[in-house]
Amino acid sequence: MSHHTTSPVADVFVGRAAELDVLVRAVRGSPAVVLVEGEAGVGKTRLVRELLRHPAAAGRTVLLGRCHPLRSPLPYGPVVDALRHLREVPLAAALPPITGALHPLLPELAPLLPDPLPRADAGTERHRLFRAVRDLLVVAGPAVLVLEDVHWADEGTHDLLRYLAHPPREVPLVLTCRREDRLPPTRLADHVLGLAPLAPAHVRELAAGLLRVPKVPENFAVELHRRTAGIPFAVEEVLREIREGTADLDSLRPGSGDRVPVPLLLRDTLADRLDRAGPGVARVVRAAAVLDAPETEDVITAVAGLPATDAAEALVSGLRAGLLHEVSPGRYALRHPLARQAVYAPLPGPLRRASHARAAAALAALPDPPLVRLAHHHRRAGELDAWVHSTAAAVEHAALVGDTALALRLLEDALGDPELPRDAKDAFAVRLSKLALQSIVHDGTVRCLRAVVADRAMSRTARGEARLNLGILLINQVGSVAAGRAEIELAVPDLSRRPALAARGMAALSLPGFGDAPVTEHLRWLGEAERVIGDSGDEELVAAVRANRVSTLLQTADPAAWDAVAALPAHAASVRVRRQLTRTYHNLADAATWLGHYDRAREFLDRGTRMAADSDVPYLAALSDGTALRLRAATGGWDGLEADVHRFTEQAGDMAFLAVDGWLALGRLALDRGDAPLAARHFGTALAAAPDNAPAVASAMAGRAAAHLVLGAVTAACHEADRALAKSRRKGNWVWAAELAPVLVRAHLRARRAADAVAVTAEYAEGIAGRDAPLAAAGLDLCRGELAAARGEHEEAARRFHEAAHRFAALPRPHTAAAAAEASARHCAQAGDREAAAERVTSAITGFTGLGLPRDVRRCERALRGYRGSARRGRRGYGQVLSPREHEVAALVGSGLTNRQIAEALFLSQRTVDNHVSRAMRKLGITSRTALRDGHGAADGTGPRRL
Predict the structure, then answer these.
(1) Are 711 and 854 in contact (CB under 8 A)?
(2) Which tens digits make up the pLDDT trace of 848-891?
(3) Which phi and psi (to 5°) does residue 333 adopt?
(4) Residue 904: pLDDT over 80
(5) CA 20 to 30 Å from 862, out of 71, 457, 570, 800?
(6) How far apart are CA 484 and CA 252, in angstroms?
(7) Phi, psi angles (nearest 5°) of residue 33
(8) Per-position b or e across 554-585, b if 16+ CB within 10 A of its CB
(9) DSSP state, residue 193
C-alpha cells in the first residue's frame, strides 16, 4: 500500500478489503467514476495496484497515468502519460478523424492517428482535444483509465476530467488525490473512497507480512502504530529500516523514545514537501515539530517567530498541504512522531536552541503552564537554571496528583544528564530515593540510584540519605536483602550529621524478617536506633523507629509486643507519620499471620488498608494483598484464590519479591489439595522470588520437603528440611519454623533418624518457650505426636494429635486441624479406643468436607466404617480391665474434676467422658463418684484396686 511502488515488500495488502470491493464493482459494471482520496502515504496507489491485479481487470486495457509535483504542471500530463500506452495495444477499429487533434500531444501515436486537423482558435482546439480523447478511449476497447495524484494536475486536465466524468461515459475512471485537495469531479463521482490510516490490528498484520514472520508482539504493533499514526507508507519505511538493520525491534518498544531513525525516503519526502510549501509554511511546521505536542495557533506563531497574519496564512497552507493536522479543535501538530522527527532532526543547533527558548517563553506565559514540557524546552534551549527549577516543580506536581511514575522518570532523566548542577544532583537524588520508597519501582530506578550513590561528587550527607533509601528499597521491593543491608550499613556513617536519619537506617536493620543475620544482631541495631533517636523532634523518624520496634517484637513473638501495639496512635495528623503507621500495620499483619494470630492479622490488615488510602504507598498495598492471600490459603478461604493470586503476581511484574506470598499461597493450596508436584513447583518459585525473606524461605522449604514426602522422596525431603533447619538455627527465631518442624521430624523418622527427630523437637520446644505463637505451639504438638507414634505409644500419639487438632481448629487452620484429627483417630483405634477414633475421624470428615476435598473425605469415611464395625463386634483387649482412656478419665475424676472439665482437658465431648466414667465405675464395681475418687473398685473383676 506504499506510495513508494519500488518496495520489494509492497505485495502485502491489508485493511482495504471493503474499498477494493467498491473498485472491483465499478470496473465490472457500467462505466463509473471512483475518486480515491486520502492523505499522503495512506495507501491510494497500493489500493489501485491491487485493483489492477484483480481478475476484474483481466482483459481490459489499463491506461495508467500519474501527475508529478512540478512547479509548472505539464499540460494534460497524466492523460498523455496514460494514452501513450495505446501504441502497444491492438485497436478494435480505425480511429475517427477527430483523433487527429492528438498529434501535438501524442507524437508517439502518430502511426495510428489520422491526419492532423487544420489549426483553429484556442476554444475549438480545446473542444477537438476533449472529443478526441473520448473517442480514442472508445476505440481502445474494454479499458479502465487510472490517473494518480490528480491534485498536482494543471487546470486543463481538471477540465478534461470533468468532461470525461460527465455522462455518457466511455470507460471506468479511477482517480486518486489528496484529501486536502479534493477536485470538482467529486460531485460527478459515483463513489468517493476516503482512505483512513490503518487500525492497530491492521498495522500488526502488515508488520508481520513485511517482516515475514507469523506475527509480531502486540506492544510492538501498538508502538509502531503510535509512531506512524497508521500511515502505511511510514509503517513500510520503518520496517524497511528494521529489515535492513538500520534499526532494531527494541527501538519500537514502549518508552524507548525517538530511537527509530527517520527513514531516508520519509525524510526526503517531507523535506521536498516543505520546500514546495514555501518558507512561511516551513517555519510554522518546524515550530510544531519543536513543540512536539498539539498546540494553539498563538503558541505556534510565537515559536515560529512570524507576524500573526503571516503565521495564520502559513498555518492554513500547512493544513491544506497535509503537513499539519488539527488534532483537536484549535490545536495543531504534525501527523505522527516520525514526521516530527523528520522535520526536527535537520534543524541546525542554534536554530533549535532559539526555537526551544521561544517555546519555553510561550508555554510559561500560559495561565496553567505544562511543567514537564516547560522543563524539556528549557533544557533544549540550554537554560540550565530554569530547567532545574521547572523540573523540580514538575516533580512535585506529579507527586501531588499521584503520578509517581512520572515524577520518578523526570528525576531519573535529570540525574542522567551530565549537565545537571551538583547542588541539584544532591536534591534530585534524595527526592528520587524518597519517592521510590512510596511506589512500586522498576529496574531503571534501582540502576539510577545505584549510579547516583557511586558518584563521589555528591555531598556526603545527600549520598548517605540516598543510599539509605536505596537499601530500604532493595530490601522491601527488590528482595535483595544482603545488598540492601550493605547499602544501609554504608549509609549510617555518612549520616553522622543527621543522627535521627542514621537511626532510621539502624531501625531498618533491626527487622528480623530480612536476611539470615541472627535475631540478636537485629535487636542490637534496634537498641542503637532507640539510643540515637533519643528525644528527636522529627515525628516521622520517631514513628519509623517505633514502627520497627513493635514489628520486631511481634516478629519474634515477644509477649510484650501486644502492649506496644496497644500504645500505637489510632491516627496521625501528618501524612508522613500516617505512612509510617500504615507500614507498621502491614508489618504487624504479616508477622501475626506467620505466628498464627489470624484474627489479629485481619484486624491489622483492615487498619493498614484504611490508612493506605490516605498514604499513597503502592508497594505497601501490594504487601498487604500478599499477606491477605497467604492468610486465605491457611484459613481455608479457597474460593477464587487461584485467580486472585494470578492477578496479584501479574501486577507484581518485574518485582517478583512482592509476589512471594502469592506463590506461597498457591503452594499451600496445592499441597492441601494433594497435588504434591504442583506444590513443589510453586514453593520453588516462592523460594526463587524471595531468597532472603526469612519466614517465607522457611515456609517454602517446609512446603517442598512436605511435597517430597508425599511423593516418597524421603532423601530429598530430609535434604530440604535440613537446609531449612540450618537457616532457622542461624536466624534463631524458632517461631518461624512452625511449618518446618513437623515436616522435619516426620522426614527424619521416615529416614530412620529418630535421634535427630528427638533432638530437633527438643530444640524447637526450647526455641519457642515463652513465645506467644499459637501456630508454633500447635506445630510442637504435631512433632510430639510424630515421636510418640514412632515409639508405638498410640495413646500418647492420639492425645498429642488431638491437642494439635484443637489448636489448629482454634486458629483456624482447618486443613491441618482435619489432618491432625485423622491422625489422632488412627492412633485411638490402634490403642483400642474405637469410639474415640470414630468421633475424631468424624471431625476430620467435617473439616475436609468444608474444604471441598472429596478424596480425603472418602478415605476418612472408609476408616469410620472400620471403627464402627469393630465397635459393633465388641471391644477387644480389655474385658473387665480399665482401658488406658478409662484409666485416665477415672484418675481425673479422682482428682476432683467434673466431667465437663475432663472433657475440656482431654479435648473430648462431655458425652464421651460420661460414657468413660460409667464404664469405669461398672468395671470397678462401684456406684458413686465418691468411691471412684477414693480409688477403690474391682479393676480386674476380682477385687479392689487403687487408681
Answers:
(1) no
(2) 999 999 999 999 999 999 988 754 444 444 566 777 677 778 87
(3) -160, 170
(4) no
(5) 800
(6) 34
(7) -115, 125
(8) bbbbbeebeebbeebeeebeeebbbbbbbbbb
(9) E
Q: d(Cα 175, Cα 152) in Å, to the nearest integer?
A: 12
CB atoms within 10 A of CB 881: 14
Exposure of 59 by Cβ count < 10 A (0-12 exposed, 13-18 middle, 19+ buried)? exposed
CATH class label, 406-416+423-437+445-652 = mainly alpha
Taken in order 161, 166, 168, 173, is the CA torsion positive or negative?
A: positive
Q: pLDDT tens digits for 412-425? A: 999 999 999 999 99
Task: Give the per-residue pLDDT at 875.
Answer: 43
Question: Is 17-194 a CATH 3.30.540.10 domain?
Answer: no
Please give the grid coordinates belonging to residue 135.
473517442
Question: Is 680-878 in CATH node 1.25.40.10?
Answer: yes
**Helix, strand, coil shares of the chain as percentages rounded to 5?**
65, 5, 30
Q: What is the pLDDT of residues 395-415, one digit of tens each?
A: 999 988 888 889 999 999 999
Amino acid identity, position 497: R
CA-wise closest residue to 171 among 367, 58, 31: 31
For the purposes of burial, counting CB atoms within 10 Å of the CB of 780, is it exposed (0-12), middle (13-18) or buried (19 or more)?
A: buried
Q: How do strand 191-194 and strand 33-37 relate by DSSP bridges?
A: parallel
Predicted confidence at residue 264, as pLDDT, reads: 77
CA–CA separation, 45 and 50 (whole Å)? 9
Question: Which of 686, 751, 741, 683 is CA-nearest to residue 712?
Answer: 751
Closest CA to 449 of 797, 464, 460, 92: 464
Upstream peptide bond of 168 is cis (omega within 30 degrees of 0) = yes
10 Å CB burial of residue 459 (0-12, 13-18, 19+) is middle
What does the DSSP 8-state code read for residue 512?
T
In this predicted structure, what is the pLDDT of residue 6?
36
Amino acid found at 474: L
The predicted pLDDT at position 699 comes to: 96
- Three cell numbers at 312? 495564520
Query: CA 908 to CA 910: how far, in whole Å?
Result: 6
Mean pLDDT of the chain: 86
pLDDT one-digit tens code per residue, 113-160: 999 999 888 889 899 999 999 988 888 878 888 999 888 888 888 889
User: CA-to-CA distance for 548 and 136, rounded, in angstroms?
Assistant: 95
**DSSP codes, 468-499:** HHHHHHIIIII--HHHHHHHHHHHHHHTTT-H
pLDDT, one tens digit per residue, over 570-603 is 777 777 788 888 889 999 999 999 999 999 999 9
Give the domain ranges of the chain.
Answer: 17-194, 197-258, 406-416+423-437+445-652, 680-878, 879-947
**Domain range 879-947, its CATH number among 3.40.50.10050, 3.50.50.60, 1.10.10.10, 1.25.10.10:** 1.10.10.10
Strand pairing report for 325-328 and 331-333 = antiparallel
DSSP string covering 248-304 = -GGGGSTT--S-SPPPHHHHHHHHHHHHHH-HHHHHHHHHHHHHTS-B-HHHHHHHH
Q: Do domains 406-416+423-437+445-652 and 680-878 have the same CATH topology?
A: yes
